[in-house]
Amino acid sequence: xxxxxxxxxGLIGTRHIAEVERNASCLLAxxxxxxxxxxxxxxxxxxxxxxxxxADADGIILATPTRLHSSQAIACARRxxxxxxxxxxxxxxxxxxxxxxxxxxxxxxxxxxxHRRHHPRVARLRELLDAGEIGEPLxxxxxxxxxxxxxxxAGNWRSGSDGSPVLINAVHDIDLxxxxxxxxxxxxxxxxNLVRGSDRVETAAIMLQFENGMVATVVLSDASPGPWGxxxxxxxxxxxxxxxxxxxxxxxxxxxxxxPSLTLWTGSSDWSQAPxxxxxxxxxxxxxxxxxxxxxxxxxxxxxxxAEPLINAADAARTLAVTLDVEAQIKARGVPVSRNAATGS
Length: 345
Ligand SMILES: NC(=O)c1ccc[n+]([C@@H]2O[C@H](COP(=O)([O-])OP(=O)(O)OC[C@H]3O[C@@H](n4cnc5c(N)ncnc54)[C@H](O)[C@@H]3O)[C@@H](O)[C@H]2O)c1
Known about the structure:
alpha/beta, Rossmann fold, Dihydrodipicolinate Reductase, domain 2, 2 domains, 6-stranded parallel beta sheet, 9 helices, 31% helix, binds nicotinamide-adenine-dinucleotide
């Protein structure tokens, strides 16, 4: 039985609390939450800060505002706790590097919550790519379109530029692409905020070049109720409506594949022949459990020293560096771009 604390009983923290309570290998030891009323219902000790915690623990899940991740993870490492920290790993690369160093010197582990890596269809996609089913991948494009409700931004840390979907959401797509294709060597991005007009990007286009030579784009918006995105495609997030639509398209020298359907397009040697679709014969069924549950099971294995973190702070720092570069480029190019500025009126 692993004693797990959850810090932050907000949007994602309450999902983590439910998963810890559901996992037979975990005991919810305490909650850290300065807004105590948010945690009272769970019937475990509630502390206002990590420094105040008197409960014994093996590990902690940090589901707190991103700017707090680094200092909190360092404090937890000093207490000897393994950490599962939500993404983005931190607000700066230096802060992520400091977390990594603190865990290394304490002999503890940091697992970063890029939960998509735990999805069985992502694992199968990697197998298909590694097996050369589409030859050498040349290009990929990922889509993410949702309309976030207005109260998501009202009166909290997401109302300002920290609420950018680049930092909160595209970081997942960038990490997924890194997980599949390796390191990014070139980034270009632009964006807008035509709908809400706040001091925050809401729609963006990102271009990436990878060390292996392939290129990828990510286009996203949190102001468009479109059907495409990892969560809506896989149905893995109870807060996001499910459409089952593909959201990632990868093309290579011998064919192509789309995700999450894992439809393979092959049989064309040049443009005179139409590629034909087939569903991968070994496609894993959409799992009953969510990537968040699988991630927690993996965290238990990490706490038991049976596994190394699937993504540690150093690895996540590289995803963060790309993501921060994207955000900086969009800002440098002039977001906010109001409707008036865009139309010149
Ligand atoms: N993996 C995912 O899919 C996913 C989804 C949502 C959010 N996130 C990430 O999780 C983190 C939290 O996001 P959220 O949307 O749940 O935010 P939220 O605002 O809904 O919740 C944050 C909670 O942390 C609490 N808090 C503030 N200061 C604290 C402190 N010092 N110690 C303990 N708790 C404190 C707040 O009171 C609040 O209850 C962010 O880093 C975000 O990017 C990840």
